Amino acid sequence: MKYDQIKKRGKKYKVIIIIGLIILIILLLTVNIYHRLLGNVDQQSSQQKELLLQLASNYQTIIQKEIKKVQTDSLYMINNNIIERQDLKKQTVVKVSNIGADSAYGTLLYENGDYQYMVQIKDYCITQESKDSKLNIRKGICHFTNSSIQIAQAIRKYSVATELVTDDVQTGLNQELPFSSKQYFVGENPDNYIVYADSCYRIMGISQNDTVKIIYEGPVNEKGNCQQVATNVSGYIGLLPWDKDKDSNIDWSEPTSLSFEMSDWVEMGRIDMKNFKVMLNKDQLEMADWFVGRVANNDSIEKDIIHERSKKYQAMIGLITPSDYNKISCKRSAASNSTNCKEHNYLYKDKYSWWTLNRTTDETKSTWSVNADGKTMSWTVPYSNEYSYKGIRPVFYLKANLEVSGFGTDFAPFIII
Prior knowledge:
single chain, 9-stranded mixed beta sheet, 25 strands
C-alpha cells in the first residue's frame, strides 16, 4: 500500500517537474526572441538615425552653399527659401533644392558670420546651434523659435515688405492717435500668424504706439502651430445679434448687447459660446481706443475712416471696422466696394458673414458687415420683428512690451514669451 502511494506521488512530482521544465524552456525562448527583436529595433533605429543625419547633412551643405551665393550678413530661411534681409524692398529669394526627404522644412538664422538652423524631417527634429556645433536629432516636433524681442520689432524684422506696408493718408495715417494704424498686412496669405493664449490669430497691423492688432483665426493644431488652421470657415466662433434690442439704434459704445457680452468674456478670461470655448489672457491685452463712429454711404475709404474715428470707445476686445477690411485690397469705401475686395485679402471668408463695429448713419437701424461674397454692406439689426444673427470674429490689441519668438509663418508663428 505504501509502495503504491509512493509510486503515485513520484509520478505526480515527475509531471510537475516536466511541466516546470517546459515553462522554463518557453520563458528562455521568449527572452531570447525578445532580445533578438530588440536588437533588430535598435539596429533599425540606428539606421534611421544615420539616414536622418545624412539628410540633415545634405540640408547643411545646401545652406552653406546658399550663404556663399547670397553674400550677406543678414538672412534667414523659411520653407526652404533663403531670404536676404539687408534691404526688405530689394529682397532676394533663392529656391533651395530638395534634400532627399519626402517631407522637410526648416528655418535658418544667419547673422555676423554664424548661423543656427532647425529642420523638421518627418517625425524628427534636427538642430544645429552654431556652424561649429554638432547636429542634434530627437524624435518630436520642432519648435521654431529664435531670440525673443519686442513684438512690433519682431514683426518688422521678419515680415516681407510687400506684405507689411506702411499706412498713408488714404488709409488713415495719423500720428496723433495712439491706436491708429501705422503699418498693416496685405495679401491673400501673408506671414502674419501669432499664437496668443493657445489659439492662432492673424496680425492685422502695428499701431502708432506699437501695440499690435490681432484677429482670431482658430485653435492651434496638434503640433502647437498654425499650419492648416486658416480655412474658409476659420475665425468663426458663432452667431450672435449685434444688438438684441430691436427698437434701439444705439452705437457700439452705449453699449449694445454684443459689446456688453464680449467685455464679459475678457473679465471671465475666456470666450464662452454654447459649443465654443477660447481662452484669453487679460494680462497681455491692452485697454485700447476702438473707433466706433457711424459710417455713411461715402464715396472713399478716407471718408469712412474719418467717420469711424468720430467716436471712440475704450475696451480690451472689439471687432474690425469696415476700413480694416477694405484697405487690405480694394481701398474703397464700405458703400462703394465690390466683390473684388475679397481678392488677395486674408480676412475674406466665403462661408459666413460677420459683423463690424460700426453703425450706418441713416435711421434704418443698420450696421456694416462683411458678407460671404466679399463685400461690406449695411445690414438691418432688427430683422423681421426679431434681430439678425451674423458671425463674430474677436479682435484684440496686444501690449507693446510683450516679447515674442518665431517668424510669423503658419508653421513657425510668433509666440509670446
